[in-house]
């Protein structure tokens, strides 16, 4: 993640004096900003402004956002990618923490139904007689999951972020539901705290 930081005095004078800087380390960001200000065409330049940002996904980085907060979000996005950005966008950036994200994140699936199928198989399949298993309606089970607390948003990389506000499935016999998952496709997560409900049309 990066931000374009400019000298505010030069900006107000109609001159764009600034540069793109990495936005993951507070000390390095402050050092880069001081270099921008010290080389400003305007004398006694002391204030800066964030004119643009890149690779923060849907997170909002405001013009006068505190550098420590920008660096905190940037570092977490760099480490966890779009999954953290989506989590932060819907829990509130100020409340989005590393610990909260780790508690919420479950893994990656190729589709909502793939998630529903694995959820059912891990939690319930062993209790279903083998002769009945061909009649399991995974589509309906997944649809009911989505109506019972889960919701989804489109992700830039083609995935969907799912959140689960209340119910947490039992782990599989071999470990957590995320075991063996690849970092691609759909992202599954659940929030802690307040419930936010949205609706979208999935393509």
Structure description:
The protein is of the alpha+beta class. Helices cover 35% and strands 17% of the residues. It has 7 helices and 7 strands, in the order βαβαβαααβααβββ. The protein has a 4-stranded mixed β-sheet with strand order 4-7-6-5, sandwiched between helices. Strands 2-1-3 form a 3-stranded antiparallel β-sheet. Helix 3 crosses helix 4 and helix 6 crosses helix 7. The two termini are 28 Å apart.
Number of E-type strands = 7
| Outline type | rod-shaped
Q: What is the rounded Rg?
A: 22 Å
Order of helices and strands: EHEHEHHHEHHEEE
- The strand order across the widest sheet is 4-7-6-5
> Number of helical runs?
7
Summing up helix and strand content along with how strands pair, one would put the structural category as: alpha+beta
The unreliable regions are: 164-203
Beta content comes to 15-25%
For the largest beta-sheet, the strand count, sense and barrel status come to: 4 strands, mixed
Which percent range fits the helix content? 25-40%
What is the typical, i.e. mean, pLDDT? Answer: 78
N-to-C CA distance: 28 Å
